[in-house]
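Is this the right way to post structure tokens for a design question? Let me know if I should format differently. Anyway, here goes:
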């Protein structure tokens, strides 16, 4: 099992309303080049795809897990990860949008972060 953000996990995911502001023009199913950050993988170039108007999104990059954030309510999201199996695995806890960095979502329970600019 891969260590994700310092804890053993089998899943991850993503969502960000702040990302949509930084990646103006992104619409569902339209991938845009972006810069991503995850606690495990650091900074890397990625593709960002908005998945709904609430701010949910996916980020993907070769050799990295694909993350999906699903906004449950403003400022709060569930996260999922596909570690190359074609199967999304739920990440534990709730991700909270950071006020000082709206492109970032943090999980206070696992001390993990997912960002896309």
């Amino acid at each position: 099992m891969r260590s994700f953000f310092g804890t053993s996990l089998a899943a991850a995911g993503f969502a960000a309303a702040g990302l949509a502001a930084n990646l103006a023009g992104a619409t569902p199913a339209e991938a845009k080049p972006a810069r991503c950050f995850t606690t495990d993988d650091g900074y890397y170039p990625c593709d960002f795809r908005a998945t709904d108007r609430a701010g949910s999104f996916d980020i993907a990059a070769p050799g990295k897990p694909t993350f999906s954030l699903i906004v449950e309510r403003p400022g709060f999201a569930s996260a999922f990860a596909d570690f190359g199996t074609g199967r999304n695995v739920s990440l534990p806890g709730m991700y909270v949008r950071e006020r000082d960095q709206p492109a970032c979502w943090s999980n206070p329970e696992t001390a993990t972060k997912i960002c896309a600019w």
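Format looks fine. Someone answered above. Worth noting: The first helix runs from residue 17 to 22. Residues 1-65 form one domain.
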